[in-house]
């Protein structure tokens, strides 16, 4: 079994910063890509950032230049540093990790429980 646990959400004023963390634990071979998604009220869940195992990153246009995704492979943890936050960044943020049970198993997706980020104006 694999568990994915997020932390670090909260309430912050516009222009402020928050850092999210997401740790995967359990029995597996390796973790591949790690992603952050968000879902605002009444909207679909959207991918905002992704990081490959080798550290290659990609960002949605809406967060590029303000948010930074990083990872610690030894700790099976992904981080999301969010700076210059805007009210439109308010959403539940979800971590998604691709887990390989064995070298030939392929990647299986696991989601965290979500953490609320609220940015006040």
List the helices and strands and how they pair.
Layout: E1 2-7, E2 10-13, E3 18-26, E4 30-39, E5 46-51, E6 57-59, E7 67-72, E8 77-82, E9 91-100, E10 107-111, E11 115-120
Parallel strand pairs: 2-11
Antiparallel strand pairs: 1-3, 3-8, 4-5, 4-9, 5-6, 7-8, 9-10, 9-11
- Major sheet characteristics: 7 strands, mixed
Note the beta-strand portion. over 45%
Which radius of gyration do the C-alpha atoms yield? 14 Å
Point out poorly predicted stretches: none
Plain-language structure description:
The structure is a single chain. The protein is mostly beta strands and about 120 residues long. It contains no helices and eleven strands. The strands form two sheets. Strands 2, 4, 5, 6, 9, 10 and 11 form a seven-stranded mixed β-sheet that branches. Strands 1-3-8-7 form a four-stranded antiparallel β-sheet, with no helix packed on it. Strand 4 and strand 5 form a beta hairpin. The chain is elongated, with a radius of gyration of 14 Å. The chain starts with a strand and ends with a strand.
Brief digest:
By secondary structure, this protein is mostly beta strands.
Based on the model shown, name its key terms.
four-stranded antiparallel sheet, 11 strands, single chain, mainly beta, 0% helix, 121 residues
